[in-house]
User: Fold these one by one.
Assistant:
Number 1:
Amino acid sequence: MRGVSDLHSPVLAWYDEHARALPWRGNGATAWSVMVSEFMLQQTPVVRVLPMHAQWLERWPTPTALADDDSGEAVRAWGRLGYPRRALRLHAAAVAIRDQHGGQVPESYDDLVELPGVGDYTAAAIASFAHGRRHVVLDTNVRRVLARAVSGEEFPPPSVRKAERELATSLLPEDAPTAATWAVATMELGALVCTATNPDCDRCPITDRCAWVAAGRPAYDGPARKVQSWAGTDRQVRGRLLAVVRESAGAVPRRRLDQVWTDDAQRERALASLVVDGLLVRVEPDHFALP
DNA sequence: TATGCGTGGAT
DNA sequence: TATCCAAGCAT
């Protein structure tokens, strides 16, 4: 096997030439704009995030601006991005930044990961992309690139294992600026070339040293990768219920919510779970509104 | 570790 | 049409 350092130069050169000019990259970006983008990009494609990100940054250009607004406004402005708990958590994170960090997005991983809605990936991403710090940034793109290029497998295991993290750590460039570029470059390579389906190996800068290509691109044979169901699930009902309230000016009477789903028990369960999650509040005997 | 959590485009 | 997938997090 070639030394792992052989991967760095071609990937970094490829990124320098092919990186997308996204609003949360480059000189115009702030730590806050990076943070907003990372929340929105959790399980959501870039093309759908772009317009929402612009709207949010125009309306709430700083963490304090968002923190000073109602959390319900964040949920409403989240629109149809999906997983609206992210909006609630981003608002809560903004409150924590205003109250505990002087209104400035924290720079350290340890401070970031304490914020609501910020896990290992997002903390590392903000620390790396916004502050130039040296961290292993292990998202689904990076995991897939390393699984193929180094491990010779089509897909990584369902969850991050110790060996996988150790591999990513061993590949991380020593100096912080290069490590940060390496992180975003491997993510970009996974997003644009080394995709989950139909990877474009002909355009890949490391195809000549890719273990998976060398092995003849064998099909994935690990544990079954489960795809979540949608039709008929509580998630679908929750989505319909919240959409009604989101698109209404004020509180919504229960009888309007009754119309979005015929199964009474499931509808009530979904409604109750939205209240538990804090996405809806019961404001009158039988009315519901955003928080 | 396994599960639940939205939405919509691509194949 | 049904399935897969998209920069995860919290429990």
Note: Residues 124 and 198 of chain A are 28 Å apart (CA to CA).
Number 2:
Amino acid sequence: MTLRLFNTLTGQFDPLEPADGIALRMYACGPTVYDYGHIGNFRTFLQIDVLRRFLLLSGMQIRHVMNITDVDDKIIRNSIEAGIPIGEYTAGYVKAFFEDMEALGIERPEQIVRATEHIPQMVKLVEKLAASGAAYRTDDGSWYFRLKAFPEYGKLSKKDLSGMEDGARVDVDEYEKDSARDFALWKAPKPGETSWDTAIGRGRPGWHIECSTMAMEYLGESLDLHAGGEDLMFPHHENEIAQSETATQKTFARHWMHVRFLLVDGRKMSKSEGNFYTPRDLLLKGYKASAIRLALIAVPYRRQFNFTFDSLTDATNAIDRLRTFHSRLSSGRFATGENSAMQEAAKKAQEDFMAALNDDLNTADALAPVFDLVRAGNTAIDQGQFFTGDRDAILQVLEDFDAVFDVIKDRDAEVTKRALKWATETGRMAEVAVELVAAQTLTDEAIEALVVERSAAKKARDFARADRIRNELQEKGVVIEDSKDSVRWKRK
RNA sequence: GGGCCGGUGGCGAAGUGGCUAACGCGCGGGUCUGCAAAACCUGUAUUCGCGGGUUCAAUUCCCGCCCGGCCCUCCA
């Protein structure tokens, strides 16, 4: 069974398979590192992460390349304002981006490439286009792509630009472009701007040429899949297609995946709306990294996701249910043997889980069988109809689930700890939720000691004292769960 | 103006031309527990934005309308 993934280019659900029959060659547009990434950025990266993890789980090999755009207008502007070179300016945000990826459990692509390290290759591509007449130089030293050279322009975004007359609704700007829609391949430097001295003149690359160049450099002239946020479809991806296909006369990417934007409280997220959040903001408010991940993943990638704090709370609680069940399986004692009904339930959950993801990565649908299995398992355990063989079968399903969703394995405490460290270093402690600070005052060892103390009090039937300890822990965000053979605790 | 997506219970959300409309969260009742928590049982949409049409049968297909959102410029 193979994944049928919606293909923007064909408008259909096409099977996603490597053309060479070996490894899927995929390219994903990465971040422009002029600031911290926000949850909108990360929804896209997270959904692409779901794709790559699912492909790997399905046994496919992949070669996944992601770029980092470390030179662009905003970067140049901000670095000039800060009075530092662009490399120095972007370094901090590149580092932050990797930290955020790790915090959210986004796997590293096989290859991460940076625009500023591929200038010569970009220049070569511009030269190739120029040689065929598809690129031209203007008086200021910039280079443009001649849209007329690529009649198929608009095939991805399904735009018919032929009726669009130059000068009607589009500015014919200060550069002497032949046609208003022609886009920049290479930009001549303005005074004080970072630039490279190259065979096509001094300047810096346009955004679109970066991706074309790096994608083809590492994956060849024809890719299996190209992915990115929906906004990139036009003009960015359309321009990539125009440049690449004009240069190679080959299909640039057979399959295009676009992740839908998210809203925040029903509105487009923006700084001016005051509804702009980074993962760091949410961590400092006390939300767990796993909850952010699940919330951003649980609504399928082609559907608009409305982010709210309720959605994070819901995700937190859902994860708690999964983790509680998981630890009940791992720590519980069961008799040897198996229950055939449980075995079947595990098998069915596994199949349904895979089938849902094979259906255009339907993450919402994929969660259902897992939760069904949780209930069936809990019920069987409660009734004493649960055995070691069942535990093993179910743990395997949960492992596969987590290979894609990655929320049961609990790294939340360390991620939060790092966020707090960052807040300290950058003077943002005032933004940190008070409960979060309170929770940090207790080490795991201190909690263990209190739990032991409480158990002793309970055994002595000193319930007042036991409850006092439980309340104290509760105030610091630690919840206690008594079970037959043990006491579990967790940080809320 | 042009292109496009969505409107399913208190919230999020899956889904299908006819099977009891998944799953998660929340809330009510119960079981268990010293009390909790967890877990389980149970109740929470006779109904899928509104109006019309096609059909033996529509939430699912078609048309119109209303509402929300996105793109057409930098943006994940």
Note: The first strand of chain A starts at residue 4 and ends at 7.
Number 3:
Amino acid sequence: MSIVLLAKDLGLSISTVSRALNGYDDVSAATRERVTLRAKAIGYRPNPSARRLGAGSTSAIGVILPAASSTGQAVDSMYSSLLGGVVTEIEPAGYHLLASMQAKPDAAREAALYENFIRGGWVDALLIVRTRVHDARLDLARAAKVPFVTYGRTESEQPYAWVDTDNEKAFQLATTRLLDLGHRRIALINGPEEYYFAQLRRRGYLRALSGRKLKADPAWMLHGDLTEASGHELCRSLLIQRPAPTAFVCATDAMAFGAIAACREAGLAIGSDVSVIGYGNSSLSAFCDPPLTTMEHQVFENGRYVGRALLQLLRKEIKPADVHYLEPVVLVPRKSDGPAPR
Amino acid sequence: MSIVLLAKDLGLSISTVSRALNGYDDVSAATRERVTLRAKAIGYRPNPSARRLGAGSTSAIGVILPAASSTGQAVDSMYSSLLGGVVTEIEPAGYHLLASMQAKPDAAREAALYENFIRGGWVDALLIVRTRVHDARLDLARAAKVPFVTYGRTESEQPYAWVDTDNEKAFQLATTRLLDLGHRRIALINGPEEYYFAQLRRRGYLRALSGRKLKADPAWMLHGDLTEASGHELCRSLLIQRPAPTAFVCATDAMAFGAIAACREAGLAIGSDVSVIGYGNSSLSAFCDPPLTTMEHQVFENGRYVGRALLQLLRKEIKPADVHYLEPVVLVPRKSDGPAPR
DNA sequence: GGGGTGATCAAAAACGTTTTTGGCTTGGGA
DNA sequence: TCCCAAGCCAAAAACGTTTTTGATCACCCC
């Protein structure tokens, strides 16, 4: 009964108070001033539920976090930073982040979760992360006419709003660096094949190789699940091949740490016998031994970009086709790579 | 206009449909069956906003993530797992997690955020993380009569619901282990002093020392901000003292990695010249060199416990005073510690 | 002076539920 | 036969906004 109290207190009608507070232009500046002042003094806050019901919008942005594939438990810590960035932007605009999670990777359950989120009217817009090569979630969102932006691209006929890092260029860069160091046997320890970023990374890797007229060996392009354990296992399987690779480009720093552990177990000196490059510039990469050569990208900043795009989309200030932000990735040279051994 | 359509379709009144769907017992089993079936067939979902307005509850649980103190940007990745656990539990019960974030550590702004969350009617319950020794947030929640559970304890006269890990025992355990290995000069690289867990860890550390009739040197109990960089810096400042510590107990694995880097720079061999114990058993700790001796606690599982407690609190099945879960911490011995040097 | 045009505000109708209140059966006990 | 309770359901009143519609008034121009 709050707005009616305020209205009574002011001697105005409910609608005038509402319109004053919401910045409509058919209420005089003087009245608006009077209303906002009194509202603040009285400590009036519009009830969000009522506001949602009345306006038909929820002022919430939804995201469904993917469960890590291996354990089915932990969430990729990258998302903390991403969501941090998103929230930083949407918070001042009065939006909140409604986060749900997939307990286990399961396509049917995933669809149901998104269904519920969208059709149930929980959120005004959607953030879709960890995009796949072909991603049914885009169709779901489109069908329900819910604005969305994806973090990571996908193969889609129709235009859509995306923010992504330049995976292809990044891995081309890293691979070229290793080629310049004299390596000729370079392995790619990639992420899960179904994700689009893995495709792009392979593309960059291949592009670098073919730039030197080198043929890629399919046996040296492996897919894992982004964890240390996976990097460790894949690297070990590569090291027993003859000839073995002398360099490894990894999809995450975590995988790189796993690979380094495997190399060390094989008695190889990191940075001389064998070279390893990671991805992500995790806070640890500068402090391990040897410090990890890796590729930096600004997850938090990307999150902010996503948040801004979402806001603009909601306000219809921009069309999905115009939200295309490709973050350049920079290589951070440290000590985990070096000239190819003789 | 959804429930009225369904009601019309069924030839029942709106209220009967609502009551049937919500499991009231004054509607016959047969009617309930008929309604639920038809609802599913027709694809009816109650509009959450309307439901909230009608029932006065939001079916959302709020959490405000603290910004990492150093960068003001990234979020501690531990929260990914914690929130993952929470969501896993509350999702099936129809609850969602409403996450907000503090852009920067700032007491006034924090209070405003919580104010808005609670008084604004955004959430039904609150999860309070990273508790401080004296924590004003509890009073805020109590004053607004919003159920809450804290992750981590605090000093409070009144009973409250908490889930925590046994920080004190953990650090007593770790310190005792080092004492058993012959170390007599053990430093504590702790987290920020304001957080209660830091107090508890120091208490455990001190208890272990006094168990051997040893005096603690205040100069060897340092506080940092949980990051690698901080661990690195603190450890370096300790190593230039004469005599220098021979062992370090660290508040996080990240700090331990930083400390290890500092030791290595000082030309010390980890596990023989100097011993380091971490906390958290991060996925990396098994793969670094040497593998890190650390303390494991199950963040995801704790999150599930928190979720369940929240649900029970909301249903009034339990009183805050009865939610006291202290997770035992287990030490994972690896190779970063060893007998004290002569 | 009359008709149109803005500017300002009031009244009332949505929005889609939940919850309260009370009415109508039916059956059993006195 | 009458009364009462229990079981089932309908009607209507909340819930607190936003938005639409329309009324009133002043003003200006012709």
Note: The first strand of chain B starts at residue 60 and ends at 65.
Number 4:
Amino acid sequence: MGAVVGRKRGFDRDEVLDQITRAFWRDGYQATSVAGLTEATGVNPPSLYAAFGDKRALFTGAVDRYQATYGRFASRALDEEPTARQAVERMLTEAAVEYTTPGRPRGCLVLSAPELHELRDQAMRAVEAKIRHDVDTGALPAGTDAHRLAVFVAATARGMSSLARDGATRAELCDVARTALSAWPAPVP
Amino acid sequence: MGAVVGRKRGFDRDEVLDQITRAFWRDGYQATSVAGLTEATGVNPPSLYAAFGDKRALFTGAVDRYQATYGRFASRALDEEPTARQAVERMLTEAAVEYTTPGRPRGCLVLSAPELHELRDQAMRAVEAKIRHDVDTGALPAGTDAHRLAVFVAATARGMSSLARDGATRAELCDVARTALSAWPAPVP
DNA sequence: CCCAATCTGTAACGTCCACTACAGAACGGG
DNA sequence: CCCGTTCTGTAGTGGACGTTACAGATTGGG
């Protein structure tokens, strides 16, 4: 079990994966070159390929890491908040913060990369399930269209990510979240 | 005036520019190769370069054409509708249709291409000016934050374009527009 | 202290890219 | 009918890309 012998890796795998994640996050899959990654990380191509695989594998590794760290806030809000309303409110207001945090790329990696359509659908379905649960249990009016509301939340998050990438301020994104939430149906009394 | 002599061009310049527009619209600037454009149009590279210039010029020509045709609906709504509310309502509902019209790429070219940040800002400022006018003339409540509302409209349009690219239906986009409009401030009576 | 195993840097591989040199074909004016 | 002019197709240019062959460096086990 474990490597029996051999020269030790000359770089911190997690640290390098983080730099790779930020590169893909900032520039997207296509615009990020392996040569650029070696320059950003100081790790030469053979070592990158040995540690992570080809460019596609580098990207999926970066996406996995993104979801486990920077993008974790969304599923956390859905898991930890009791109602859909509270979960979406927290998700969107935290998104305003996450999408404009200095020292990292702006916006959301998953919402920006065209090739991650599947992950976006998953996220939207999770929001829809949270809403549907509240409709079923009577916390939201019986007539509420859970799918429609989830699509609207998805649109808001995507719009916020796009605006963040174009340089929108944190306050502007908070206002977008607040305005969007004003379209939320009144809770059952 | 006019060319004095010489062989005539073997293709319809506008028709070819339209195919080029659709290619950039569908795949973006980077993912569109000149080789792909020659295949899509049947026009060889030297003729393309003679007629339009280099790849960057091809792209800006395509964007210009897009704004003059497919994307015209937005500025038309702002120009032709009397109130900001009516203009935005028409803009978003027509966007739902335009973004999902069969036989052409989905979503908006300007909202999808990262390099067109400037054009997006222009569009948002136009919406903001329309709203500010209604606030100044009393058609909207005096406390209305025109900028904040314009950013929200921009977020909605971007969200709709992104959803359209991921395959959202026309009905879903109409619902997003309707829900977003429910956040519009009540008009002054 | 040697050895098999693993990682490292150098330097290249073939492929695709945007772009163009060149020669010939099609045109209208004289 | 020739001529200058403009367009066209072929066939390349140099460069960037993702990926890897290879030889040397470094490790721990025996």
Note: DSSP finds ten helices and no strands in chain A.
